[in-house]
Amino acid sequence: MAAVSRVPRSRGGISGFMLILLGAWGALIPFVGPYFGYAYTPDTTWTYTTGRLWLSILPGAAAFLGGVMVLLAVSRAAAMTSGFLAALAGAWFVVGAPILPMVSTAGPGMPAVSQGSAFSAPVMRLLEGLGFYYGLGVVIVFFAAVALGRFAVAAFPAAGYVTTPTEVEPASQDGPYTARHN
C-alpha cells in the first residue's frame, strides 16, 4: 500500500461545487442582500463591519476554500482536511451569531425589513436568519459531511471480487461441487 492514497477525480465533485457556491453566498450576501431588501443592519450595500467579517466573510471564505480543496485534492488526507475545514465553517455559521456578541462588541446586527417586502416582518426575520446563518450553516455542514463520507468510504474497496473466481460446476465423484480448471 502506498503512503499516500490517491483520490479519483470523480470523488466529491458535487459536494465541492456546492460548498463553493454556499461559501460564496455566505461571504457576499451581507453586501448584496440590501439591493433586494434582504439584510441585517446596517442595511446598506457594500458596508463593512467587524460583525460581517467574523460572521460572514471568514466562514464563507473557509467554506469556499474547503470546496475548492475538495475539488482539487489529490490525496485522501488533503480531501478529508478540506472537508473538515468546510464543516467547521458551516458550524460557525450556525453558532457564531449567538456566540460573538457575548465575547465581542461585534454582532450580526438586527434583521432589516424593508417596507413593501413580499413577506411580513416576522417571516422576513426568519428567512434572513436561515439564509444568512442557521440554514446556510446546516446546509454547508451537510455537504461537508457528504464529502467526508465519500472520502472515508473510498478508503475501502467496493464490495465485489478482488480476483475473478473460478467457475464452479457440479461434479459427480469428488463431492457436490468442484472447481473447473481450464
Explain what this protein looks like in three dimensions.
It is a single chain. The chain has 182 residues and is mostly helical. The protein has one domain. It has helices at 13-32, 50-72, 76-103, 121-132, 134-153; strands at residues 39-40, 111-112, 168-170, 177-179. A two-stranded antiparallel ribbon has the order 1-2. α1 (13-32) packs antiparallel against α2 (50-72), α2 runs antiparallel to α3 and α3 (76-103) runs antiparallel to α5 (134-153). The protein is elongated.
Name the strands of the widest sheet in spatial order: 1-2
Count of DSSP helices? 5
- What is the residue-mean pLDDT, rounded to a whole number? 81
Order of helices and strands: HEHHEHHEE
Radius of gyration: 25 Å
Measured as a percent range, the helix fraction is: 55-70%
The largest sheet is: 2 strands, antiparallel
Low-confidence stretches: none
Derived structural class: mainly alpha
Q: Approximately what portion of the residues adopt beta-strand conformation?
A: 5-15%
Principal-axes shape call = elongated
The N- and C-terminal alpha carbons lie at a distance of: 32 Å
**Count the strands?**
4
Number of domains: 1
